[in-house]
Write a structure and sequence with these properties.
50 residues; mainly beta; 3-stranded antiparallel sheet; 32% strand
């Protein structure tokens, strides 16, 4: 939780130290390659594909 974000396109606005980042890996397919950031404090959500 938190730490270094690895956004695919650009750093999402509104991320606080309390976010989860989910990266697409084999067996966990979001439908196009990419990752998602969910911020638990600010309710920011961002999805980016690469």
């Amino acid at each position: 939780m938190g730490g270094t974000a690895f956004p695919i396109q650009a750093m999402p606005d509104g991320l606080t130290p309390w976010y989860l980042e989910l990266e697409e890996i084999s067996g966990l397919n979001f439908g196009g390659g990419g990752n998602a950031q969910f911020d638990l404090e600010s309710d920011t959500f961002d999805w980016a594909c690469g």
